[in-house]
Amino acid sequence: MPDNQDPANWGPEPVRPRWLLTLRFVATVVCFPVLCVVGLATFLVFIVLALLTELIAMFSSGYERGFGDVMESALDRVVRLGSWFVGWRQLRHEGDTAHYRARVDKIVAHWTALASAPPEPDKPEPPVQCEIPLSFYRGVGGRYVVETATAQGWELLPSDVRKKVRLRWAAAAEAH
User: Fold this and answer.
1) DSSP track, the chain
2) Is the dihedral of CA 163, 113, 90, 137 positive or negative?
3) C-alpha dihedral, 45 to 46 to 51 to 55, nearest 10°
4) Can you give the pLDDT at residue 147?
5) Are 35 and 78 in contact (CB under 8 A)?
6) Going by C-beta distance under 8 Å and a sequence separation of 6 or more, which residues neighbour residue 126?
7) Where residue 1 falls among pLDDT bands split at 50, 70, 90?
8) Which of 45-59, 85-99, 156-170 is predicted least confidently?
9) Left (φ > 0), alpha (ψ -120 to 50) or beta: where does 141 sit?
């Protein structure tokens, strides 16, 4: 197993300098509304284009698929522009291990409650997989997520710890 796939090597992310977080937070407050307007404008442009080219889409499924792919790609790029944003919680709790432990405990308990709930008729099946983003475990590392989750019945799926930890409910694998 490569070192980056071994949960034993998944420690906490380094603490970012306070001045950098403050600068990013201020930039986030200024840029977030602009990004929302750009995203909404992009979406509306694609809706208008879709309405104008509906006749072509009726006769060509390839056009419709291609149009959907282009729209998804454009909107993903707009969302990726905000990847450097820093929220109030990150600014306030950077380096606070107890805060990140509590967040991981809470999110894993939430997913465990959802996955272990008995299935109800006429309702979707309980989730058997989940992804926990880096923002939840930055201060404690992916190893803590895996330890907490395996103690509650989850199994680790291949994950990129720099982005997210993917888990599967072990009881669901035994049932199938």
Assistant:
1) --GGG-GGG--PPPPPPHHHHHHHHHHHHHHHHHHHHHHHHHHHHHHHHHHHTHHHHHH-HHHHHHHHHHHHHHHHHHHHHGGG---HHHHHHTT-HHHHHHHHHHHHHHHHHHHHSPP-TTSPPPP-EEEEEHHHHTTT-HHHHHHHHHHTTEEEPS--TTTEEEEEEHHHHHH-
2) negative
3) 130
4) 92
5) yes
6) 114, 115, 116, 117, 118, 119, 169
7) very low
8) 45-59
9) left
Please check whether residue 86 is in contact with residue 24, taking contact to mean a CB–CB distance below 8 angstroms: yes
- The phi, psi pair for 129, rounded to 5°, reads -135, 150
* Stretch 38-54: mean pLDDT: 87
Alpha carbon of 110 to those of 88, 94, 130, 152: distances in Å?
Answer: 23, 23, 11, 11
Q: What is the pLDDT of residue 62?
A: 79
Strand partners, 164: 133
C-alpha span between 152 and 27 (Å, rounded) = 39
